[in-house]
From TrEMBL:
Family the UniProt entry places it in: Belongs to the prokaryotic Ku family.
UniProt GO BP: DNA recombination; double-strand break repair via nonhomologous end joining
Gene Ontology molecular function: double-stranded DNA binding
Binding partners and assembly: Homodimer. Interacts with LigD.
Residue spans crossing the bilayer: none
UniProt keywords, alphabetically: DNA damage, DNA recombination, DNA repair, DNA-binding
Species, as recorded: Rhizobium soli
Protein name from the UniProt record: Non-homologous end joining protein Ku
Region (Disordered): 234-305
Record keyword DNA damage present: yes
Role this protein plays: With LigD forms a non-homologous end joining (NHEJ) DNA repair enzyme, which repairs dsDNA breaks with reduced fidelity. Binds linear dsDNA with 5'- and 3'- overhangs but not closed circular dsDNA nor ssDNA. Recruits and stimulates the ligase activity of LigD.
Amino acid sequence: MSAPRANWKGHIKFGEVSCPVALYTAVSSSDRISFNILNRKTGNRVRREFVDSETGDPVEHDDQVKGYETGSGKYVVLEPDEIAAAIPESDKTLDIDAFISCAEIDDIYFDKPYYLAPQKLGEEAFALLRDGMKEAGVAAIASTVLFRRLRTVLIRPHGDGLIGTTLNFDYEVRSTDKAFEDVTEVKIDKEMLELASHIIGTKKGSYDPTKFDDRYEEALAELVKAKLEGKKIPKRKAPTASKPSDLLQALRESAGMGGKSGSTDKPKAKTKAPAKPKSANTNKTPRKTAKSAPSSSTSTRRKAG
């Protein structure tokens, strides 16, 4: 098996220390099921082409040029060499600006992850940076030009190497104001909150990526197989949202309490009182046993929806 091809090669610099590194794609969608676009009438593949919006004539690749719209139907034409000249100059260096806490950056700013590995003659300096960050429990913020754009990169220790995650700029991350402006303040009933807390507690677990499958990809594969075999495709019912009037009942059922109300510290399971000898004190009440909560390992084995 051949070694992976680096997407970028350069240096990481911290202080006066510099080491050569290579950057590799960490996430790939190449294994996903892909489709071709066909002509429904002929069954032939459809070929994409650019056409002039006014004349309808095909436009060859050499005649295509980028343009920025300044008004309705008016554009500023930008030639490839003009765009290339506007890209900030880069000396192929990931220059570390600061070391920060790993939890300091909101993951909404995360864009794409890449693996960073040392090149020849850079192993010692690379290991020094990696192990130093591990020891201090920090990540690094650096910047450079990647793929014709100036990028901010978050660098973190990962196994024997480093992970470099490109970050979205502040102007690219939309404000929550518009998304949450219609969210109204709701006062939650104490019993409902206790039930929700109990359910959350019984579902606690840990994240193991190997336990989660891409069910969409599996469903597509099953669909293709069924079509090839001429089988009928069953239709699935859409889930219905819980009505506010049914929410408390749904929470009680989820907590294993049926329709009962009361404390949710530990939902009780009905137990049959043991038979007592005639001489026993009948004033004593048999103790109920707590219903066993599902184990956290069970919840982590459930596949993602």
